[in-house]
Amino acid sequence: MLGSIVLAGVLSFGLSPGYEQGIKKLSDSYDQQAIFESGGELVEEALRACEKHFGTALFLPPQLPSVAFTHQYGRCYDMEGGLDEHLEVHYQNRYKPEHDYKIELYPLENKQQLKHLSFQESELADHTTAKFYKGPINTLQLLVFEKGNWQYLLTAANRASSKISQQELTEIAESLTQAMNSKDPVYAMWGTLAVTETKRKYNMDVVDYLYMGRTTISNEMAEEKFKLWLKKGAREFGVYVTVAFHPTTHQFISIRYEEF
Questions:
Q1: What span, in angstroms and rounded, lies between the C-alpha atoms of 99 and 114?
Q2: What is the C-alpha separation between 146 and 153, in angstroms, rounded?
Q3: What is the fold of 185-259?
Q4: Using N-to-C axis directions, what is the helix angle for 185-202 and 166-180, rounded to 10°?
Q5: Whether the predicted model's global pTM rises above the 0.70 cut
Q6: Nearest by Cα to 44 from 224, 189, 171, 173
Q7: Which fold has domain 17-180?
């Protein structure tokens, strides 16, 4: 379930900074390809696969640790290989193994018991009970809490140089409760998807964002529309992004773009 956190060491060869940076980028692309070949997916694809498998919308904490990652990927485990059904999202930094962070979501009827760990209990801002465990050095930190019908496990590396703390894991957990308790968390979820997919499609930064409202097409389809402004170097332009989804199950249907 928790598995071992990948903590790969990096050797320094004393090469020029430009050459070393080029080697890192090439190595990163090979690493990412190896991850995908071993069953990893883009985070958005893994999320959608698990939403389809479980037949319901899944929410990830919108806040991430304030450290840099070189790799991010997800996996929807649906009893494949005998593993418990769950969603796993992993963020890593190949050159800084202390920057390692993982999110796991389990349905409550199959939640992980973890009775062998000594937890410290606390309360999140909305009075949700959270349990924190910090293992020996060079192992892991773990924050566990329940929201809706799901058990969330937030795991971070525990090394002497680790910058992800218990406080930050708690803030990440609270960012989820704030989003889900907001007036319209579904709109927020699709807004995040619109920004992420647009940045990936155009390989540009999103510098402005405007929510334009929801349209109900039928009992089986609704659309959220967003106006995004993109910029990279001297190039700037706007895109209308429309996300279609099932209004009851919140399953993703499609996304379309209209430049202006």
A1: 24
A2: 9
A3: Nuclear Transport Factor 2; Chain: A, (3.10.450)
A4: 110
A5: no
A6: 189
A7: Protein Transport Mog1p; Chain A (3.40.1000)
